[in-house]
Write a structure and sequence with these properties.
The protein starts with 14 loop residues before the first helix and ends in a 10-residue tail after the last helix. It contains 20 helices and no strands. It is about 75% helix and about 0% strand. The chain is mainly alpha-helical. The relative contact order is 0.21. The radius of gyration is 21 Å and the shape is globular. Helix 1 crosses helix 10, helix 4 runs parallel beside helix 15 and helix 5 runs antiparallel to helix 13.
Length: about 475
């Protein structure tokens, strides 16, 4: 049974295209400025580079099993599809609902973040002072237009944005190396084991949120069974090594032993990296970095929106959500209905905060980016478990690549999930008692998923059966089509 053309995704993504989509969601510049700065302040201080290397090891272990699974399963449902195959349909719906909470909340937060920082940077650099919510609306509209143009167009735009934001940080890294040099103290146990190792590892892992989206674009890849595993390894290695080297440069510039205290002094303003940049690059390039932060934030919004859209599309295709969400443009296979629905939700959430007149960073961004991060990390941990279980059920003889290494990666991901749940106020960057309660949205989503699964099994058996059938139908398509008719 083939997928009807009007509900079929199209694309010709290679490894670079998928990597651009994923790394744009990770937003390296934003990650260093925001996550790196907070990690240095509240985590292990000068030992932060080592935390990124440890997090890289965890995700690479997970990627071993993920790569094997992605060679067998090509589906736009991403981790939801993996969990259906490994743990069954009920668990698959649990993963899907967790993904819906995580990604949709993350995009709502990204709409607010993009608008807020764009308003500040444009006012500082160009003297044009406009409300943040106008820039949020403009960002959402631009994301919708690019998504409508097809995934290949998004990949090209995100590729340009990624190169620019990485380039400015590479210039900073080189300037610090040539001026001050890098200290090897961050890799000494007495340095990276000081402070809060748990928070340090949590924020380092937070910088990888978004890499798991490689599988979501498998139906739009030229050769998904080769493209997706390679793109996953490239993305993880790039994120980890780049973040480790750049934070290594920053703590060397600050002084390894003094880095934590200095970062705490700049925590409220969030200008630690800009301060270092002004010292080593001067005002002109630092202004350019601020502008590229705006580009980075929009790129993250677009990439996260593409990921959230594909979960809506996949659940619409099987009938769990309205099937209209699976409608695509004949010209380029863009999932326009799911895209529109997702952006309408995210924009309405952001505008509600604007109407209420509350601080978008302390409220909108803290709440929705925080719960989005927790949801995606939990999704990664669930998927890791499903991958190990699947290969044990089929008695795969490759015990190293399908059991031992993925199991270690899964244990690491569950540790990060527990750290994120237990330290949610620090993760969200807010001490609000209301925001502290947000993690309980995930148990609510899990309960709702179990209830929906029970209802589908009893009242809509055709939809219930289609959860498995959709996996087989898509996975049996020739590997070279990428879902293109």
């Amino acid at each position: 049974m083939s997928t009807p053309p009007e509900t079929r995704l199209k694309g010709h993504l290679g490894v670079p295209g998928v990597v651009f989509l994923v790394l744009a969601a990770v937003a390296p510049l934003t990650g260093i400025i925001v996550i790196g700065g907070i990690g240095i302040a509240v985590g292990t201080g000068g030992g932060t580079p080592m935390m990124f290397l440890l997090a890289t090891a965890v995700f690479l272990l997970f990627a071993v099993g993920y790569a094997q699974m992605s060679k067998r399963l090509v589906n736009a449902g991403g981790f939801y599809a993996f969990v259906v195959r490994g743990l069954g349909r009920t668990a698959g719906l649990v993963a899907a609902f967790v993904a819906l909470v995580g990604y949709n909340c993350f995009v709502a937060g990204a709409v607010g973040t993009s608008g807020f920082f764009t308003s500040i940077v444009v006012a500082d650099v160009f003297g044009l002072d406009l409300p943040w919510w106008l820039w949020s609306l403009a960002s959402a509209a631009a994301a919708w237009l690019l998504t409508r143009s097809g995934i290949d167009v998004s990949a090209k735009v995100l590729g340009v944005a990624l190169v620019l934001e990485v380039a400015i940080l590479v210039v900073l890294d080189i300037a610090i190396l040539l001026t001050t040099g890098y200290s090897f103290e961050p890799f000494l146990p007495e340095v990276f084991l000081t402070g809060s190792v748990g928070l340090g590892l949590l924020f380092a892992a937070n910088a990888f949120v978004g890499f798991e989206a490689t599988g979501l674009f498998s139906e739009e890849a030229r050769d998904p069974r080769r493209t997706i595993p390679r793109a996953t390894y490239v993305a993880i290695l790039f994120i980890g090594v780049f973040a480790a080297v750049t934070t290594w440069a920053i703590v060397s510039a600050l002084g390894v032993r003094e880095a934590g205290g200095t970062a705490r002094e700049h925590l409220a303003a969030g200008d630690l990296v800009f301060t270092v940049s002004r010292q080593y690059l001067g005002g002109g390039l630092t202004d350019a970095m601020q502008l590229l932060l705006v580009v980075s934030l929009f790129a993250a919004l677009l990439a996260l929106h593409n990921s959230a859209t594909r979960y809506l599309y996949a659940l619409g295709r099987v009938g769990v959500l309205p099937r209209r969400l699976a409608h695509t443009r004949r010209a380029n296979g863009a999932p326009v209905v799911a895209s529109s629905a997702q952006l309408v939700f995210a924009t309405l959430v952001a505008m509600a905060y604007a109407v209420a007149g509350v601080d978008p960073i302390a409220n909108l961004v803290a709440a929705f980016t925080g719960i989005g991060t927790l949801g995606i990390v939990a999704l990664q941990a669930i998927a890791a478990t499903a991958i190990v279980v699947h290969f044990r059920r089929v008695r795969d003889p490759r015990l190293l690549s399908t059991l031992a290494l993925p199991l270690l990666g899964g244990l690491g991901l569950w540790t990060v999930t527990a750290l994120a749940f237990g330290n949610f106020p620090e993760l969200a960057g807010s001490d609000s008692p209301v925001i502290a309660l947000l993690p309980w949205l995930l148990p609510v989503a899990i309960a709702a998923a179990v209830a929906v699964a029970s209802w589908l099994r009893a009242s809509r058996p055709d939809v219930w059966r289609s959860l498995d059938q959709d996996l087989d139908r898509v996975s049996d398509q020739p590997a070279t089509t990428g879902g293109t008719p």
